[in-house]
Amino acid sequence: MSRGFLYNTSGWPHVLTSRLPCDQHYTFIMGNIAFIGIGSNVGDKIRNCGQATDEISRCKEITVVAQSSLYRTEPIGYTQQDWFINCVIEIGTSLTAYELLNILGDIELSMGRRRILKWGPRIIDLDILFFNNEIIRCEGLTIPHPEVQDRAFVLIPLCEIARDYVHPLLKKSIAQLVTDLGSGTGIEKV
Ligand code: AMP
Question: Which regions of 100-186 does DSSP assign to beta strands (E)?
Fold first, then answer.
Protein backbone atom coordinates (compact mmCIF):
# COMPACT_ATOMS: atom_id res chain seq x y z
CA MET A 1 0.00 0.00 0.00
CA SER A 2 1.42 3.41 -0.85
CA ARG A 3 1.40 6.34 1.52
CA GLY A 4 -1.63 8.58 1.49
CA PHE A 5 -0.37 11.89 2.77
CA LEU A 6 1.62 14.81 1.41
CA TYR A 7 3.30 17.25 3.71
CA ASN A 8 3.22 21.02 3.38
CA THR A 9 6.04 23.30 4.47
CA SER A 10 5.09 23.03 8.14
CA GLY A 11 5.22 19.28 7.88
CA TRP A 12 1.44 18.92 8.28
CA PRO A 13 -0.09 16.17 6.19
CA HIS A 14 -2.65 16.66 3.45
CA VAL A 15 -4.71 13.73 2.38
CA LEU A 16 -4.42 12.48 -1.18
CA THR A 17 -7.94 11.19 -1.71
CA SER A 18 -7.01 9.67 -5.05
CA ARG A 19 -4.82 7.16 -3.27
CA LEU A 20 -7.54 6.01 -0.93
CA PRO A 21 -9.27 2.71 -1.60
CA CYS A 22 -12.82 2.50 -2.96
CA ASP A 23 -15.10 5.44 -2.27
CA GLN A 24 -13.60 6.42 1.00
CA HIS A 25 -12.78 10.10 0.87
CA TYR A 26 -12.25 12.72 3.52
CA THR A 27 -14.96 11.22 5.71
CA PHE A 28 -12.59 8.48 6.70
CA ILE A 29 -9.77 10.78 7.62
CA MET A 30 -10.40 11.42 11.22
CA GLY A 31 -8.33 14.42 12.13
CA ASN A 32 -5.08 12.88 13.31
CA ILE A 33 -2.30 10.91 11.73
CA ALA A 34 0.08 8.65 13.55
CA PHE A 35 2.94 6.32 12.72
CA ILE A 36 3.06 3.04 14.58
CA GLY A 37 6.09 0.77 14.87
CA ILE A 38 5.29 -2.95 14.90
CA GLY A 39 7.70 -5.69 15.97
CA SER A 40 7.69 -9.37 16.89
CA ASN A 41 10.36 -11.97 17.66
CA VAL A 42 8.35 -14.85 19.07
CA GLY A 43 6.41 -17.52 17.16
CA ASP A 44 5.30 -16.77 13.61
CA LYS A 45 6.66 -13.23 13.56
CA ILE A 46 5.43 -12.27 10.10
CA ARG A 47 1.96 -13.54 10.95
CA ASN A 48 2.03 -11.66 14.28
CA CYS A 49 2.87 -8.36 12.56
CA GLY A 50 0.07 -8.97 10.04
CA GLN A 51 -2.40 -9.84 12.77
CA ALA A 52 -1.52 -6.69 14.71
CA THR A 53 -2.07 -4.58 11.59
CA ASP A 54 -5.42 -6.31 11.02
CA GLU A 55 -6.47 -5.73 14.62
CA ILE A 56 -5.52 -2.06 14.35
CA SER A 57 -7.45 -1.65 11.09
CA ARG A 58 -10.50 -3.31 12.64
CA CYS A 59 -10.82 -0.44 15.11
CA LYS A 60 -13.55 1.83 13.73
CA GLU A 61 -11.74 4.99 14.77
CA ILE A 62 -8.63 4.00 12.78
CA THR A 63 -7.86 3.69 9.09
CA VAL A 64 -4.53 2.25 8.00
CA VAL A 65 -3.35 4.38 5.08
CA ALA A 66 0.17 3.10 4.48
CA GLN A 67 2.31 0.14 5.39
CA SER A 68 6.05 -0.38 4.96
CA SER A 69 7.73 -3.58 3.88
CA LEU A 70 8.65 -6.12 6.52
CA TYR A 71 12.25 -6.19 7.75
CA ARG A 72 14.26 -8.83 9.57
CA THR A 73 16.24 -7.01 12.25
CA GLU A 74 18.91 -7.79 14.80
CA PRO A 75 17.90 -7.51 18.49
CA ILE A 76 19.34 -4.57 20.42
CA GLY A 77 19.89 -4.33 24.18
CA TYR A 78 19.35 -7.93 25.20
CA THR A 79 21.04 -9.65 22.26
CA GLN A 80 20.60 -13.30 23.34
CA GLN A 81 17.29 -13.59 21.55
CA ASP A 82 15.91 -14.24 18.10
CA TRP A 83 15.89 -11.62 15.34
CA PHE A 84 12.79 -9.48 14.99
CA ILE A 85 10.38 -8.79 12.19
CA ASN A 86 9.56 -5.07 12.06
CA CYS A 87 7.42 -2.76 9.99
CA VAL A 88 5.77 0.66 10.31
CA ILE A 89 2.24 1.71 9.46
CA GLU A 90 0.65 5.11 9.03
CA ILE A 91 -2.90 5.59 10.29
CA GLY A 92 -5.63 8.22 10.23
CA THR A 93 -7.56 8.30 13.49
CA SER A 94 -10.11 10.23 15.52
CA LEU A 95 -8.53 8.89 18.71
CA THR A 96 -6.32 10.98 20.95
CA ALA A 97 -2.75 9.77 21.46
CA TYR A 98 -3.70 8.38 24.89
CA GLU A 99 -6.72 6.53 23.53
CA LEU A 100 -4.54 5.11 20.77
CA LEU A 101 -1.93 3.96 23.32
CA ASN A 102 -4.67 2.14 25.27
CA ILE A 103 -5.98 0.43 22.16
CA LEU A 104 -2.49 -0.68 21.15
CA GLY A 105 -1.95 -1.98 24.69
CA ASP A 106 -5.21 -3.96 24.48
CA ILE A 107 -4.12 -5.46 21.15
CA GLU A 108 -0.74 -6.42 22.62
CA LEU A 109 -2.49 -8.10 25.54
CA SER A 110 -5.03 -9.87 23.34
CA MET A 111 -2.16 -11.28 21.29
CA GLY A 112 -0.52 -12.66 24.42
CA ARG A 113 2.10 -10.01 25.15
CA ARG A 114 3.52 -10.22 28.67
CA ARG A 115 6.02 -7.67 29.97
CA ILE A 116 8.79 -9.78 31.50
CA LEU A 117 12.09 -8.27 30.36
CA LYS A 118 12.40 -4.67 29.11
CA TRP A 119 14.40 -5.49 25.99
CA GLY A 120 13.38 -9.14 25.92
CA PRO A 121 11.48 -11.36 23.49
CA ARG A 122 7.96 -10.28 22.66
CA ILE A 123 5.15 -11.74 20.58
CA ILE A 124 4.17 -8.23 19.58
CA ASP A 125 5.36 -4.70 20.30
CA LEU A 126 3.37 -1.65 19.21
CA ASP A 127 4.87 1.82 19.64
CA ILE A 128 3.46 5.20 18.72
CA LEU A 129 6.35 6.83 16.88
CA PHE A 130 4.69 10.13 15.98
CA PHE A 131 1.25 11.63 16.48
CA ASN A 132 0.65 14.57 14.12
CA ASN A 133 3.44 16.99 14.99
CA GLU A 134 2.75 16.73 18.68
CA ILE A 135 5.27 16.65 21.48
CA ILE A 136 3.95 14.78 24.52
CA ARG A 137 5.98 13.97 27.60
CA CYS A 138 3.81 12.38 30.25
CA GLU A 139 3.87 9.43 32.59
CA GLY A 140 3.36 6.44 30.32
CA LEU A 141 3.49 8.30 27.01
CA THR A 142 6.36 10.00 25.22
CA ILE A 143 5.88 11.29 21.67
CA PRO A 144 7.87 11.41 19.48
CA HIS A 145 9.00 7.99 20.65
CA PRO A 146 12.38 8.80 22.30
CA GLU A 147 14.39 6.17 20.43
CA VAL A 148 13.14 6.76 16.88
CA GLN A 149 16.34 8.48 15.76
CA ASP A 150 18.59 5.66 17.04
CA ARG A 151 16.76 2.69 15.60
CA ALA A 152 17.39 1.46 12.08
CA PHE A 153 14.50 -0.98 12.48
CA VAL A 154 12.17 2.02 12.87
CA LEU A 155 13.76 4.61 10.57
CA ILE A 156 14.36 2.40 7.54
CA PRO A 157 10.77 1.13 7.22
CA LEU A 158 9.44 4.57 8.18
CA CYS A 159 11.50 6.15 5.42
CA GLU A 160 9.62 4.03 2.86
CA ILE A 161 6.30 5.64 3.74
CA ALA A 162 7.23 9.03 5.25
CA ARG A 163 10.66 10.13 4.05
CA ASP A 164 9.71 13.83 4.18
CA TYR A 165 8.01 13.79 7.56
CA VAL A 166 9.95 16.18 9.83
CA HIS A 167 10.74 15.04 13.38
CA PRO A 168 9.06 17.75 15.46
CA LEU A 169 11.89 17.96 18.02
CA LEU A 170 14.98 17.24 15.92
CA LYS A 171 13.68 19.25 12.92
CA LYS A 172 15.13 16.68 10.54
CA SER A 173 13.31 14.64 7.94
CA ILE A 174 13.13 10.88 8.28
CA ALA A 175 15.36 10.61 5.20
CA GLN A 176 17.96 12.81 6.94
CA LEU A 177 17.77 10.72 10.13
CA VAL A 178 18.40 7.57 8.06
CA THR A 179 21.47 9.23 6.54
CA ASP A 180 22.66 10.20 10.04
CA LEU A 181 22.38 6.56 11.13
CA GLY A 182 25.18 5.53 8.80
CA SER A 183 25.35 2.04 7.35
CA GLY A 184 22.27 -0.01 8.07
CA THR A 185 23.68 -3.23 9.51
CA GLY A 186 21.50 -5.79 11.21
CA ILE A 187 18.50 -5.07 9.05
CA GLU A 188 17.34 -6.68 5.81
CA LYS A 189 14.12 -6.56 3.86
CA VAL A 190 12.10 -9.78 4.06
P1 AMP B 1 7.50 -1.38 25.48
O2 AMP B 1 8.12 -2.38 26.39
O3 AMP B 1 8.45 -0.75 24.54
O4 AMP B 1 6.27 -1.89 24.78
O5 AMP B 1 7.01 -0.19 26.42
C6 AMP B 1 5.67 0.01 26.66
C7 AMP B 1 5.52 1.11 27.70
O8 AMP B 1 6.05 2.31 27.19
C9 AMP B 1 4.05 1.33 28.02
O10 AMP B 1 3.89 1.23 29.41
C11 AMP B 1 3.76 2.73 27.54
O12 AMP B 1 2.98 3.40 28.49
C13 AMP B 1 5.13 3.36 27.42
N14 AMP B 1 5.25 4.32 26.34
C15 AMP B 1 5.73 5.58 26.46
N16 AMP B 1 5.70 6.23 25.30
C17 AMP B 1 5.20 5.33 24.37
C18 AMP B 1 4.95 5.42 22.98
N19 AMP B 1 5.20 6.54 22.28
N20 AMP B 1 4.42 4.31 22.36
C21 AMP B 1 4.19 3.18 23.07
N22 AMP B 1 4.42 3.04 24.38
C23 AMP B 1 4.92 4.11 25.05
Answer: 125-131, 136-138, 141-143
Q: Can you tell me the mean pLDDT for 103-126?
A: 85
Torsion on CA atoms 12, 4, 98, 152, rounded to nearest 10: -90
d(CA 47, CA 54): 10
pTM value is: 0.84
Q: How far is the CA of 18 from the centre of ligand 1 (A)?
A: 34
Q: How far is it, in rounded angstroms, from Cα 152 to Cα 96?
A: 27
Query: What ligand 1 atom has the least distance to the C-alpha of 128?
Result: 20
Is residue 19's pLDDT more than 50? Answer: no
82: annotated active-site residue? no
- Parallel, antiparallel, or unpaired: how do β-strands 136-138 and 62-67 relate? unpaired
Q: Going from the N-terminus, what domains does the chain have, and what CATH number goes with each? A: 1-30 (no CATH), 32-189 (3.30.70.560)
Nearest CA to ligand 1 atom 7: 140
Q: How confident is the model at residue 182 (pLDDT cuts 50, 70, 90)?
A: confident
DSSP string, 123-138: S-EEEEEEETT--EEE
**Does pLDDT of 184 surpass 70?**
no
Non-local (6+) Cβ contacts of 6 within 8 A are 13, 14, 16
Region 114-118: mean pLDDT is 68
